[in-house]
Amino acid sequence: MLEKRTPLNVQAAIERCIDQSQKMPLIDVSIEDSLGYYLAEDIIAAYDIPMFDKSPYDGYAIRSAASAGASGDNRLAFKKIDHIGAGSVSTSVLSDNEAVRIMTGAPIPEGADAVVMLEQTVETAEGFTLRKSFEPGENISRQGEECTKGEVVLTAGTKITPGVIAVLATFSYQSVKVRQKPTVALIATGSELAAADEELAPGKIRNSNGPMIAGLLAEMEMDTETYRVTADHYEHLLAIVERALSKHDIVITTGGVSVGDFDFMPAIYAALSADVLFNKVAMRPGSVTTVAAKGSQLLFGLSGNPSACYSGYELFVKPALKEMMGAANVHAPVIKARLAADFTKANPFTRFIRAELDMVSGTVRPAGFNKSNAVIAIARSNSMIILPGGTRGFKAGDLVDVMVTRLTDVAGTW
Amino acid sequence: MLEKRTPLNVQAAIERCIDQSQKMPLIDVSIEDSLGYYLAEDIIAAYDIPMFDKSPYDGYAIRSAASAGASGDNRLAFKKIDHIGAGSVSTSVLSDNEAVRIMTGAPIPEGADAVVMLEQTVETAEGFTLRKSFEPGENISRQGEECTKGEVVLTAGTKITPGVIAVLATFSYQSVKVRQKPTVALIATGSELAAADEELAPGKIRNSNGPMIAGLLAEMEMDTETYRVTADHYEHLLAIVERALSKHDIVITTGGVSVGDFDFMPAIYAALSADVLFNKVAMRPGSVTTVAAKGSQLLFGLSGNPSACYSGYELFVKPALKEMMGAANVHAPVIKARLAADFTKANPFTRFIRAELDMVSGTVRPAGFNKSNAVIAIARSNSMIILPGGTRGFKAGDLVDVMVTRLTDVAGTW
What we know:
- With 414 residues, chain A is of the alpha/beta class.
- Chain A folds into 4 domains: 161 residues, 3-Layer(aba) Sandwich (Molybdenum Cofactor Biosythetic Enzyme, Chain A), CATH 3.40.980; 56 residues, Molybdopterin biosynthesis moea protein, domain 2 (Alpha-Beta Complex), CATH 3.90.105; 72 residues, Molybdopterin biosynthesis moeA protein, domain 3 (Beta Complex), CATH 2.170.190.11; 71 residues, MoeA, C-terminal, domain IV (Beta-clip, Beta Barrel).
- Chain A has 7 helices and 24 strands.
- In chain A, β18 and β19 form a beta hairpin.
């Protein structure tokens, strides 16, 4: 008797995965190791930035009052009384037409309230002359002009990028609170799969899903263990999944989720008493994608067809991993772009098409042969066209939804 | 006497860096370690994909001729003579109304030319009945329908993504030819800099450029060595740069490139007899960004101001690193977006503003306080607004150029 499955709307399926994703425990990581984690705490300015009034230029710190009346016909002379670089504090207190030679980043000496750029001066034996008057505060980077002590400068859930690391370093952080990354077990199933070091006997194909998903996880620097399936029967596979669950937060399988005679995953979810969140999604490819929860652990049953497997990862696994890591935003942006080629297939279910998006021109085209088992189009894609279910096909020039999965470089500058 | 520098147009400066970037030597990497490299060879299909006619569904392989005339009123009976999963080859040759129960991915048995999906059958003791006729080739994934042996499926210069790894795995690659990554020395200069483990004495600030650039390099998994500057004088810094050049392909310094009294980099380039490609770029911030070549080695002298340092890395270092690695495309895409806020400053030089791009709405806004020494806006940015030199400011709603530096997630699904 063939099992009947009720398809779930794809956004509802994504939401169900996220709702089920439990946040990982808090840990401290050193800022050098923090890249790719998400802030688990707001970052609050520990002091004003800049910390002190400073010079934004190489030049001379002066009292602006002393420059009053300066002009091309009336160059005023200043006397250099000190000379400081960044990192040094002048002990001088300026009066009258005194000046301190000062370099970019150095604190403004006491008594000074303006900075004359080197380019604006003519050197003399004693100091320099200038030909214009200066306003109080001119050419000074004011203490606190970027942010003041106590201000929230970055919020929890922000992805830690090199720019975030720069902020953490600025505020003297040596480590930062984040959420641990989930550890992942990766299991490619299917009796047709030959590993890279095995002979490609008749009827066999290479296991490409395993290396692909491992690569996708590596891009997020997830701690991943790949399990090798050595015999294609239920008991063996169940034992592997049980072993994986004993060690990992997430178990990703590829293949075995459909209704075929050798699709063991549905029986394995049952044997584990896992709560199946869905086993049919109203989408193509990958309608048989199944996600199950066992306590706080998630089991992602991705399709064995590469294009379906890839789409399932992008749609369900990636947002869930981010949610577990405490990300504020977990969804890939979906933008509008113009189809550069006809796509005439009807779409009973929402269709995802691996695509080449040209951000510069705002156009998009399928990245090649587009069946569920296609693999080359994945490699050529940086996005997925999303065609709503119930539509009869689209023409070149139509505006369509495009999920941007990857930022790709272009040939020329702007 | 103040040195006069002639500003170079920013695109010309970028081009000069790329022209000077020499391709790294060829190496073989295992496909597991190949992520983030660029293909140094075209990938040619070693065989047809699919390799053989196969079933895209779980069902029965039949002779289509035997289904002629089937209808709801005239269900035709088929006899199951074999049962195969993916990876198995049936030894049966079909005749008449014989059928082989076949699973997704399994090779089509001899004599069969169509596949009936399980859902289209009603099981009987001997096999099944069906109610529709099938065309020759119906529900068969044809050998070579995705690509044929000898076809170039991916070209040299393509970035190795998880999808590319899937293609390499498909064609039995265990390793692939790429260009080595350049090794990078990173040297943060400036007497005002306090390392994370040093006291923040008056006049000092934290070294944020070092950790930031290290993070940017880590995102490309570059082999980076950070050199610590322990004394701020010319001889010490020269010795460090010489040591770095003896070990690395690329030397990145931050700070010390301007015309200040403690800016030692210009003298160091001279002492090394390095060929200065430019030392002034018609851009804000970072106009003093300097790039020099010493044989095949490149020295990037980035500004000590964080926003300028960051922009210099994105504009000059990143494309050069990609060029050295053999990337076909090395430039970040520049798209059009609508300003969501006024930007009224005049732009004598081309201005780069760290910005928040909302790809979904197509709008962009400055990411915060926007002086050369700002750091928080870098952390909040995923792009840079590019305002051409010679313009007097822009208003909300104006269409501007935006360099997309980072793909950021969004709050909701489409």
